Amino acid sequence: QETLRGHTALTEGDWLPIRHEGVTYELVVRALEPDPQIALLDTDLTVEVLPSEQTEAEQRAEEERQARAEAKAREAEERERQRLERARLKAEELPPEPEAGPDVVQILLRL
Fold first, then answer.
1. What is each CA distance from 33 to 11, 12, 28, 30, in whole angstroms?
2. Which of 3, 38, 58, 68 has the highest local Cβ count within 10 Å?
């Protein structure tokens, strides 16, 4: 509020240095409604502070990383589904097991 007292007008794209607890932050005016410029004399303002461009870039990068991870997981699931389908088809191609009898040897393997 103190910083805005030094301004009589704002336009989209203006940079405003704001000091808070000894630290200066550079804020950019991204949007003004209903017009792209306003006079500040005798005006009540509603201000919405959005995340910084760096924070937005980090959020986009994280969303992209998550999307890549999800795509990779879907691809792995599809490869596994295809592998199981190939195994099922190969199993169907095998000849039937012979009937138990004196000429058939059965072996039990435990792994």
1. 10, 10, 15, 10
2. 38
Angstrom distance (rounded) from CA 65 to CA 75 = 15
Predicted TM-score (pTM) of this structure: 0.48
Spatial contact of 13 and 29, defined as CB atoms under 8 Å apart: yes
Q: At 46, which amino acid appears?
A: T
Contacts 24+ apart (CB under 8 A), 79-83: none
Residue 3 vs residues 8, 17, 32, 62: alpha-carbon distances, Å: 11, 7, 17, 34
Residues 6+ apart with CB under 8 A from 28: 13, 14, 15, 16
